[in-house]
Amino acid sequence: MKLDNRIWYLVTAVVCIALIAGGVFLGVQPQLGAIATASSDKANVDAQLVDLRSQISGLTEASKKKNELDEQAAEIRKKLPAGVDGAAFIAELTDISGQSGASVSSLDVSTPVAYAPPAAPAAPADPAAASASPSASPSASASATAAAPSAAAADVPLTKGAVTAANFVVIKVTIALAGTHDQVLDFIKRLQNGNRLILLTGVTLTQEESGTTTASLDGSIYALSNTVANTAPAATPANG
User: Fold this and answer.
1) What is the residue-wise DSSP string for 2-60?
2) Based on the number of CB atoms within 10 Å of its own CB, is 22 exposed (0-12), middle (13-18) or buried (19 or more)?
3) To 10 degrees, the CA torsion angle through 61, 63, 64, 67?
4) Rounded to the nearest 5°, which phi and psi values hold at 72?
5) Lowest CB count within 10 Å: 8, 104, 112, 165, which one?
């Protein structure tokens, strides 16, 4: 009887062990696998979050740069509007007149013409070679000839390939004004440092017997030609 009980206990123990082992393989082992998979997924998600944070940081910096570029573009559009924008130019002359005290009597605006890049000047003839005598030193002549190309290269005007006759126009303007000598000079300085890009090509100052200084300013303003439809009419801005 005691032997049968021992066998029964042994069988029971084996069955219990088998049940426990089966529980481990059927219940615990899958959970362990799920935990391992979840850990791997978490690592992948963490890596994606780091990448997304990096992208968000980059986009934030790009947004700041975009705002800066937008501000720069707005300033450039004031100097180079898309069209003649004569009204804005007249308004600026009126402001400058008020700030300087010089009175603008007339403004003539020409028809816009397509921009033409300046041509490089021809290389000057070598005077040493033209007047060289048989006894002239060959080394001196060679030195003068070698120096000529570098001098000509220094005179080549600076141009940009993006600025062409297809997208850029030039508008010649003539401004007549009067005031004291200092007021006229202040007007010219403010004009050259104003919102609109202008190139003064001629300045004529006349001192009147009354002490008033009159001036005639010749120059050019510029515009993008994509929306140029009409020529700005000649106009006289209000005196400041």
Assistant:
1) HHHHHHHHHHHHHHHHHHHHHHIIIIIHHHHHHHHHHHHHHHHHHHHHHHHHHHHHHHH
2) exposed
3) 160
4) -65, -40
5) 8
Give the pLDDT confidence of 176-201 residue by residue, as tens digits.
999 999 999 999 999 999 999 999 99
State the Cα–Cα distance between residues 26 and 20, nearest whole angstrom: 10
Dihedral of CA atoms 169, 171, 172, 174 in degrees, nearest 10, equals -160
- Sign of the torsion angle spanned by Cα atoms 60, 63, 69, 75: negative
pLDDT tens column, 51-86: 888 888 877 777 777 778 888 777 777 788 888 888
Indicate the pTM of the whole model: 0.56
* Residue 94 to residue 239: CA distance in whole angstroms: 6
CA distances from 198 to 36, 92, 93, 220, 224 (A): 72, 12, 12, 6, 14
Structural tokens at position 179: 């005031």
